[in-house]
Amino acid sequence: MPSIDLKEFQEKISTQFRPWQRSFQFWARAADIYTGYKVFQLRVSFEKDVEKADAMWERQHEHAADKIYSMCYDMGGFFLKVAQVIGKPDLAPAAWVRRLVTLCDQAPKTPSNVVRLILENELGKSVDDVFERYDWDPIGSASIAQVHRARLKGDKKDVVVKVQHPGVQDLMLTDLKNLQAFALCVQKTDIKFDLFSVCKEMEKQVKTEPLWIVYEFDFTREADAMDRIRRFLSENNKKTVVKVPRVIKDVVTRRVLTMEYIDGIPILNLKDEIIKRGINPDGKLAAAAKQNILKSLTLAYGQMILKSGFFHADPHPGNILICKGSEVALLDYGQVKELPNSLRLGYANLVLAIADNDHIRASDGLRELGIDTLSLCEDERAELFKLAQVMFDTKLPPGVKILQPFAEDSTIKKIAVQAFPEELFSVLRTVHLLRGLSVGLGVNYSCAEEWRPLAEEALYFSGRLKGWLVLHTFLMHVVLDILVNLSSVVSGENLRSRNRLRRWFFRRPSRWSK
């Protein structure tokens, strides 16, 4: 009779039941959070005192934030990315943001003995043969991998080594299936938005059918994406807009990625660093630094999305470093997206419509992008324009500090989004993450206004914009830049001055011919 390895048998059983256990854990926790809010909505509706109702909502948000944090931290995997998406100061309640923002680079860590095993299996050499020094305590840990500081043999500069967590891909596939099912439930009851398509697009980052080629889990592809974006930004700018780490190609495999070390502070620690240096965080010097940071990020993303169509699609705070002189470094190229030309140009068209405050063109632009809507209100055109702004611009309406998609007067309650192109989700997420950064930095600005010249250039080269209008725009921007530089010397308000002057210069009808 053959002997049975009890430990191996237990491991096989555990592996087979793990997806079921994980699914049960998700639905139990998600149902608890969701029903908690539904019951609370009924209870708070009886409270007539506005101040008391607000205080009740704050306590409910704090209670829910603890549960959401625990679920995301305990389950890890894809739910760490969910925390990054919903924990934005322009979208989520403040209590959620305070709790979830700490998950950006503080995910559970893989033990050092497991990291050593992964490195040696992937590189085919011992760690001591490859590295002069290796810091086993990771700099940060995220949903898919953790990063370590090290130095290669025979080199004088430090590098960063990104090592993939073991078994994380299977966990993410299970998480995605559960989230898709949850999205279908929520979009039928509370949010009239095609959340299912959003989840399908996120699934593409994990696998590509029919060959099941791993995308975000293949670090060789991430290295190629990093090189491509680094080269593109370098070729299109005389001065560095954002820093992109240089890949050390000899030390890259599917599960290990080595790149240059960039010295900087996480953008989440910017305020503390400003105070540490004896600078007033609410003063003009700090405001100018924040505006420069946003300006650099906005320009880089505008060029990537509108000129190239190939862009970094994960600008959450954990992926942004602030370097000397307010320079910005953009990290983690696991999530990148390449837009088809039709969507890239369609989005350029919508950017101009938003920048021009053109309601008719915005409505047409949404349809051109394949966004199918159903009006549930009287003033459809005005609400469609608001929807375009909410989805694809960073600027918040006057007096609004937080978007509330569950509110009865929200645009998503008035305009149901029945179909949303999966490929466009990465643009939507990027704009929302930029908006979250702008709210966190205390700078309310319009990326549509900043991206206007890039959108016009893209449409011109596609033959959709008249040449003389592009020349007129180019000359206006030359004059504008001169005036902005002069005004910023006096006031230090570079971004604000630029927007004021731009609105004055570009008060004219829509400029595209088709």
Quaternary arrangement of the chains shown? single chain
* Rg of Cα set: 24 Å
How many helix segments? 19
- Terminal Cα separation, in Å? 79 Å
What is the percent of helical residues? 55-70%
Count every beta strand, where a strand is a DSSP E run of 2 or more residues: 15
What overall form do the CA principal axes indicate? Answer: globular
Pick out the low-confidence regions.
Answer: 208-213, 488-492, 503-514
Mean pLDDT: 80
* Main β sheet profile: 5 strands, antiparallel
Strand content: 5-15%
InterPro entries: ABC1_dom, Kinase-like_dom_sf, Mito_struct-func_regulator, Prot_kinase_dom
GO molecular function: ATP binding; protein kinase activity
Domain Protein kinase: 133-475
Protein name: Protein kinase domain-containing protein
Write the layout of secondary structure elements.
Blueprint: H1 6-44, H2 50-75, H3 78-86, H4 94-100, H5 112-123, H6 127-130, E1 131-134, E2 140-141, E3 145-152, E4 158-164, H7 168-189, H8 195-204, E5 207-208, E6 213-214, H9 219-235, E7 242-243, E8 256-260, E9 265-266, H10 270-276, H11 284-308, E10 310-312, E11 320-322, E12 328-330, E13 336-338, H12 341-355, H13 359-368, E14 372-375, H14 380-392, H15 411-414, E15 415-419, H16 425-441, H17 447-461, H18 467-491, H19 494-505
Parallel strand pairs: 7-12
Antiparallel strand pairs: 1-3, 2-3, 3-4, 4-8, 5-6, 9-11, 10-13, 11-12, 14-15
GO molecular function: ATP binding; protein kinase activity
InterPro entries: ABC1_dom (IPR004147), Kinase-like_dom_sf (IPR011009), Mito_struct-func_regulator (IPR051130), Prot_kinase_dom (IPR000719)
Organism: Deinandra increscens subsp. villosa
